[in-house]
Design brief:
Elements: H1 15-28, E1 34-35, H2 47-58, H3 71-85, E2 94-97, H4 99-111, E3 117-121, H5 127-134, E4 138-142, H6 154-160, E5 165-171, H7 183-194, E6 200-204, H8 220-223, E7 231-236, E8 249-252, H9 255-266, H10 274-285, H11 289-310, E9 325-326, H12 347-358, E10 360-361, E11 363-364, E12 374-377, H13 382-397
Parallel strand pairs: 1-10, 3-4, 3-5, 5-6, 6-7
Antiparallel strand pairs: 2-8, 7-8, 9-12, 11-12
Helix pairs in contact: 2-10, 3-10, 4-5, 4-9, 6-7, 11-13, 12-13
Bound molecules: pyridoxal-5'-phosphate (PLP).
């Protein structure tokens, strides 16, 4: 009898974390690595947010809180949904967790029975399929095409719906492609889901505030009110306010689901950190200029990275509207040989070559369910990015 649970054999460690660790090891051994593999803003948390945490510590807000979040944070979350998404929620329809990641995991544990299907558009965030598998469900992947900017169409979606479909997970702006659905595109997907009352939507809006080129962020429950009772919105402060280490995410949706998620949390981690919750109240209620400023910086970086990548023969990079990732295709480099005589057979070979020759860490598209592409995070300074793109160009020029 095996000591470890059989469900573990279905999953793998997060590939993005694995690559970042490998890059960190090489760096520690003295190599001048530029790591563009991590999914977090390179900025520090804004000062007003840090101060709110210090105040919380000094006034003794250092105890367990209500499992599903402090009253103050829930109030701030409710106000955020009203202000930014025109959506009304009650406190009983909100649960605060240890990052958006725990919100998603709680929701899947709360709803998945063996054999239930979860529709996941590819390229997808690496954790969705593995979480579904851990819960005994079946991930059903919908392919998207580079031509359609890695977005799925209503037809693609409808073809995958079966009587066993429990969720569609929709992540816009997307990690890894940066693709962002417009309100019109969401409405078209919503029209399909409205026809299938057993299907629920998990809208992972964690990159909400990182949209570019005047594209207005939209979320499906706002665009199609008929779906509000069937939608769980997943959001948090990690990406928008450079707070990845504070571990605050929140979910909003039907009370029955949120109660179940809170119960699961009560038997696993209880409330998230009281201090981080106080900081998140300031993030949501305090001045929002940080968001506007960082968006402009990210947009300028994106433009530079896309332009430099597209000058490289064999690489084609779409211009995504959101998040801080680009997802170029490397099809034009496949079959070429490195100076050592190795053939670049696939995206993983290219990423390994770039790590060893250019000393730049990226992530292969196959980790996100879309081979022949790779992900670059541009959450790094302009100088780093320019240097990294130049190194990639030099290494690619050596491929014959
Ligand atoms: C699409 C997506 N959803 C959720 C998360 C998790 O966010 P958090 O750090 O708040 O748990 C991430 C983090 O990388 C992400 O990229």
């Amino acid at each position: 009898m095996s000591f470890l649970a059989s469900s573990l054999s279905k999953i793998k460690p997060s590939p993005t974390i694995a690559i970042s660790m490998k890059a960190a090891e090489l760096k520690a051994s003295g190599k001048d690595i530029i790591s563009l593999s991590m999914g977090e803003p390179d900025y520090d948390t804004p000062d007003n947010i840090k101060q709110a945490a210090i105040v919380a510590i000094n006034k003794g807000d250092t105890k367990y809180t209500a499992v599903d979040g402090t009253a103050a944070l829930k109030k701030a979350v409710i106000a955020k949904f009203k202000r930014e998404n025109n959506l009304e929620y009650k406190a009983s329809e909100i649960c605060v967790s240890t990052g958006a990641k725990q919100v998603i995991y709680n929701a899947l544990v709360a709803t998945i029975n063996p054999g239930d299907e979860v529709i996941i558009p590819a390229p997808y965030w690496v954790s969705y399929p593995d979480m579904v598998l851990l819960c005994g469900g079946t991930p059903v992947i919908v392919e998207s095409s580079e031509k359609n900017n890695f977005k799925i169409t209503p037809k693609d979606l409808e073809e995958k719906i079966t009587p066993k479909t429990k969720w569609l997970i929709l992540n816009s702006p997307s990690n890894p492609s940066g693709a962002c659905y417009s309100a019109t595109e969401l409405k078209a997907l919503a029209e399909v889901i409205v026809r299938y009352p057993h299907v629920h939507v998990m809208a992972d809006d964690i990159y909400e505030h990182l949209t570019f080129d005047d594209l207005k962020f939209a979320t499906i429950a706002e665009v199609e009110p008929k779906l509000k009772e069937r939608t769980l919105i997943v959001n948090g402060v990690s990406k928008s306010y450079a707070m990845t280490g504070w571990r605050i995410g929140y979910g909003a949706g039907p009370e029955k689901l949120l109660k179940a998620m809170s119960m699961i949390q009560s038997q696993s981690t209880s409330s998230t950190s009281s201090i981080s919750q106080a900081a998140a109240v300031e993030a949501l209620n305090g001045p929002q200029n940080y968001i506007r400023e960082s968006k402009l910086v990210f947009q300028a970086r994106r433009n530079m990275v896309v332009e430099m990548l597209n000058k490289i023969e064999g690489i084609n990079c779409n211009t995504p509207n959101g998040a801080f990732y680009v997802f170029p295709s490397c099809k034009g480099l496949l079959g070429k040989k490195t100076p050592n005589g190795h053939t670049i057979e696939n995206d993983s070979d290219l990423v390994t070559y770039l790590l060893e020759d250019a000393l730049v860490a990226a992530v292969p598209g196959s980790a996100f369910g879309t081979p022949d592409c790779f992900r670059i995070s541009y959450a790094a300074s302009e100088d780093f990015l320019r240097n990294a793109m130049q190194r990639i160009a030099n290494s690619c020029a050596k491929l014959k």
